[in-house]
Amino acid sequence: MQNYDQTIADAAKAIEGNKTWEAINPESVSRMRLQNRFKTGLDIAKYTAKIMREDMAAYDANSAEYTQSLGCWHGFIGQQKLIAIKKHFGDTKRRYLYLSGWMVAALRSEFGPLPDQSMHEKTSVSSLIEELYTFLRQADARELGGLFRQLDAARDAGDAAAEKDVLAKVENFQTHVVPIIADIDAGFGNEEATYLLAKQMIEAGACCIQIENQVSDEKQCGHQDGKVTVPHEDFLAKIRAVRYAFMELGVDDGVIVARTDSLGAGLTKQIAITNEPGDLGDQYNSFLDGDYIESADDIQNGDVVIKANGKLLKPKRLASNLFQFRKGTGEDRVVLDCITSLQNGADLLWIETEKPHVGQIAAMVDRIRAVVPDAKLVYNNSPSFNWTLNFRQQVFDAWSEAGKDVSAYDRAALMSEEYDSTDLSIEADRRIQSFQKDASANAGIFHHLITLPTYHTAALSTDNLAKEYFGEEGMLGYVAGVQRKEIRQGIACVKHQNMAGSDMGDDHKEYFSGDAALKASGKDNTMNQF
Prior knowledge:
The active site is at 221 (proton acceptor). This is Isocitrate lyase. Mg(2+) binds at residue 183. Its cofactor is Mg(2+). The protein is of the alpha/beta class. It has helices at residues 4-15, 26-35, 41-61, 75-89, 101-107, 123-156, 160-171, 191-204, 232-248, 280-285, 330-342, 358-369, 387-401, 423-433, 435-442, 453-469, 475-489, 496-499, 502-513; strands at 67-71, 95-99, 180-183, 208-212, 228-229, 255-260, 267-268, 290-292, 306-308, 311-315, 323-324, 348-351, 377-380, 445-450. The strands form three sheets. The chain has an eight-stranded parallel beta sheet. The chain has a three-stranded mixed beta sheet with strand order 5-7-11, with no helix packed on it. Strand 1 (67-71), helix 4 (75-89) and strand 2 (95-99) form a beta-alpha-beta unit. Helix 6 runs antiparallel to helix 7 (160-171), helix 6 packs parallel to helix 8 and helix 8 packs parallel to helix 9 (232-248). The longest helix is centred in the N-terminal third of the chain and has 34 residues, at 123-156. The protein starts with a helix and ends in a 17-residue tail after the last helix. The model has no long low-confidence stretch (mean pLDDT 93).
C-alpha cells in the first residue's frame, strides 16, 4: 500500500489548476483510489501470478509451506471466506480460492442444475472469476472505509497516537485479493476454443488455469465412470493454447495445472498418431486393449488394426465407437501423462484419484520425480470421498498387517456411529487431520483444495435452519442458531447493511454532496443494535 500522505499529494496535483474541480477533496480521492487498488482483471492476474510463483518456490525449499483453498460458487462466499481467514489468522498467506467447474455446472447455469459434463455455458466460468474478484475488492473497500472512519474519529478527538496507529494499519493493509485456481474443464472445444476462453478467464483475473486430459464433448466428473482421455498431442495443444493466452495478455508467469484423469479413465476416443516406434503416440497406443493377429483372416469388416509393440494389434472397439485400455495400466498412463505435461509447458499436476491415500499418491509422484525432480501437485481433497470410511479402513488394514487384533471391528461397517469413540476411529481422525501435512511432505502436494465444500455447507446450514425455524423452535431457531452465533463469533456479516456497502455509499454521498448528503447510517439505523 502507498504512503497515505503521498496519495493525497498525488490527487491534489491532479486537481490543481482545474478551477471547476475546486469542490473535489484530494483526501477523498486518495481514499477512493486506495479502496480500488486493482483497476482491471489483468492487474489482478499479474499480482496473483507473482504470489503463486513465490509460493511454489517456497514449497520447493520446504514442503511444510504448502498452500490451500476452498471452492466457492458465488462472490459473496469467496468474500466471506477471505474475511474469515484475515480475522482468524491475520493474513491470507498461502491461502487461495478455487473455482470448481462442478459447482459452476450445478449452481451457475441458466439451464438449471447440471452434472459436471461441460454442458453449462462456458462464459459462466469467466463471469464467476470476475464476480469473485468484485466481491474481494469490495471487502478491501469496506475494511479500508472502516479504517478511514477511525482515522477521522481520532483526528476529531485530537488523539495523535490513535491517528498514527490507524495510518499504520492503512499503509500496511493486506488485500483480500488472492490467487484463484480456475477450472477450464477440458477446454470446452478445440484448442482455439480453449485459447479464447482462457483469454477471457485471464482478463477476468485468473492467474492459474487447470485443464484436464479428457475428451471435451465426452467430459465426465473425475469421480464418475465413463471418462475418456485424449492422446497426448491433443492435450499438449491445449496447454500451449493456454500459455499463448497468458503471454498475449502479458501474464508471462501465469500458472497452468495439467490434470490427468487416466487413473480412472479406461477409454479413449482416438488412436494416437505415431511416426516411429517409441514416440509419444506409440506409447499411448501401447496401452490399448486388444488382440494380436497373425493374418488378414483375423480381421473382420470394420475392424481397426495398428502396429504396436512390434506386432499387429486389433484394438477392442466398443459399441460407442470408443477404444478400451488394458486393465491395470492406469498408474503407468498417469505417470506418462504427468511427465509429458511438465516437459511441454505445464507448471503443476493434478492427479485425480479414487481415494485419499498418501502411499498411492506418493508412489506415482516418486516415479514422476525420477524424471522431473521438482514435480508438484494440486490435489483434490474431494467431498466425493467418504473420508471417514476410507481412513478407518486404512487404519484397519494397517493394524491387520501389523498383526494387531481387529476382531472387534467390522471393516465393511466402520462408518457406523458406534465406532466413533474407538481407538481405531480416533487414529483415523488423527490421520485425516494430518493428511494435508503428510501428503505435502511425502507425496509432492503443493496445493490442497476442496472442490465443492461450500455447496455442502450451504445445504447443511439450510437444513438445520429449516428444521428449527419451521419446527417447534420457531424464531428461536434463527436467533439461537444463526444471529446469536454471528454476534458472539464476531461475524462481520451480522451487520448486513454494512457488508452490502451501505456505509461506503454514505462515504461517497458525503464526498459528492457534503452536508446535503442523505445518509443511511444515522441513529435510526437498526444496525446500531449490533
